[in-house]
Amino acid sequence: MRTFLDILLVVTSIALLVFVLLHRGKGGGLSSLFGGGVQSSLSGSSVVEKNLDRVTVFTGIVWLICILGIGLEIKFA
């Protein structure tokens, strides 16, 4: 179980890093590399941005559960 949580923690950490970097910031961020820098008629939150928000929050919750699981396993093992 510990190995599974360790692997899941590494995977979610990398995914969380990538998802946060893909978010559009004030200057465009890394999302401008993938076509987000061009202003379109759909200014504002698009479906892609909303889905990216949801995936980022879900990944963060899984990351937090992994941290808590590893902590509990260390404490009680």
From TrEMBL:
Molecular function per GO: protein-transporting ATPase activity
Record keywords: Cell membrane, Membrane, Protein transport, Translocation, Transmembrane, Transmembrane helix, Transport
A Pfam entry, by short name: SecG
GO BP terms in the entry: intracellular protein transmembrane transport; protein secretion; protein transport by the Sec complex
NCBIfam families assigned to the protein according to its UniProt record, in alphabetical order: secG
Entry's family note: Belongs to the SecG family.
Name this polypeptide is given: Protein-export membrane protein SecG
Species of the source: Rhodococcoides kroppenstedtii
Designated gene of the protein: secG
